[in-house]
Amino acid sequence: MNAPKAFSNRDEALKALYDDLSARNMFPFWATSSDVEHDEVRQLMGSQKAVPFVWSYKEDIEPILHRAAELVTMDDSERRSLILVNPGLNPRRATVSTMYTAYRLNDPNEIMPPHRHSPNAIRFGLIGSGNFTGVEGEDITFGPGDMVLTPIDTWHNHGTVGDESAVNLSVLDLPLVETLNSIYFEHDYKEDAELKKKQTARFPTDYSQRIYGHGGMMPRFVSHKRGTRAASPMYVYRWDMMREILEKHKDWDGDPYEALMVEYIDPTTGGPVFKTITFFVQMLRPGEKTMPLRQTASLLVAPFEGKGYSIIDGQKHEWNQFDTLAVPGGSWCQHVNASDTEPTVLFVASDEPALKAFNLFNRWGRDEAGDTVHLSDR
């Protein structure tokens, strides 16, 4: 028997086997070359994977927002938002594998009709004091740094009130919900069986602050079951409250891996505002640099104040105010405040709650010696 001929026949047989597998929509879960041996993750996720990336607000997002506002009216489309698509996930509408960030500029007095959907979403004010969201009968006008919730299945509408345009960013868990085959949208809003283009306000404009804006205290004489009861009933978190917490703790040591990080919580549970995403504000004091941190959660980071850079898997990514930075889960990441005189403030979204629900959330850090240590859950 000729040895080379036998080897050639095996190659031909393997090729035929792999061709048949592909034709039948199957995948071989065995290593066939030294570079993937015992690397199941690489075999299964080799096709599409989110990559670290920065979208520049000043250079890219802002100019396109203004061009879109000139060319696309509310009559053309009620959804004039710019979705950030991760280069590693294109053409999926995803900024990381489970979430996306979108930016929107609304012209003066531009209000869209109510709608609702299965993804959870938030709006975070960037520019202007007239950003507007009406959600489940609570009319909310919000400015820079204010965060507004539009949880799963809640009727809501967006826009601007007043004579100035306004810009906000939104974060949705739509890619995760899409993966779970659970996406739906509804647009036929009714009150008393009659179609309406605007929700009737049923609560005072300061309802969320009046009921939930006093840490550690909450009225028992009102119902806290709002919307589908699947999220925080506090629909707006004001920036002045967050700023006060940051200022009171700016001289504390903070965490070596996260600096000063404050989480938005559901006041009725003490947990995250959504079951799928949680949100933080992170402050880096002048010149502060966090220790390298790796976690299974993916992050969307929007610098709200200041500028700096992040080192992700050894690569430097510079960012400025209102940019968005994608940090895929599993990446080593550390943040650096580039200023020696001013703090940097970051708005952060994380899919940590979704991972915790499946016992998949883990964190690791590197210590001063460069050794990897497993970090306990918060």
Give the topology.
Elements: H1 3-23, H2 40-44, E1 53-55, H3 57-71, E2 81-83, E3 100-106, E4 116-117, E5 121-127, E6 131-135, E7 138-142, E8 147-150, E9 156-160, E10 166-172, H4 174-179, E11 185-186, E12 190-191, E13 194-195, H5 207-212, E14 236-237, H6 239-248, E15 260-263, E16 278-284, E17 293-295, E18 299-305, E19 308-312, E20 315-319, E21 324-327, E22 332-337, E23 344-350, H7 352-357, E24 363-366, E25 372-375
Antiparallel strand pairs: 1-21, 2-3, 3-10, 4-11, 5-8, 5-10, 6-7, 6-9, 8-14, 12-13, 15-16, 16-23, 17-22, 17-24, 18-21, 18-23, 19-20, 19-22, 24-25
Description of the molecule:
Pfam families: Cupin_2. The chain is of the alpha+beta class and 378 residues long. It is 18% helix and 30% strand. It is built from seven helices and 25 strands. The protein has helices at 3-23, 40-44, 57-71, 174-179, 207-212, 239-248, 352-357; strands at 53-55, 81-83, 100-106, 116-117, 121-127, 131-135, 138-142, 147-150, 156-160, 166-172, 185-186, 190-191, 194-195, 236-237, 260-263, 278-284, 293-295, 299-305, 308-312, 315-319, 324-327, 332-337, 344-350, 363-366, 372-375. The strands form six sheets. Strands 1-21-18-23-16-15 form a six-stranded antiparallel β-sheet. The longest helix has 21 residues, at 3-23. The N and C termini lie far apart (65 Å).
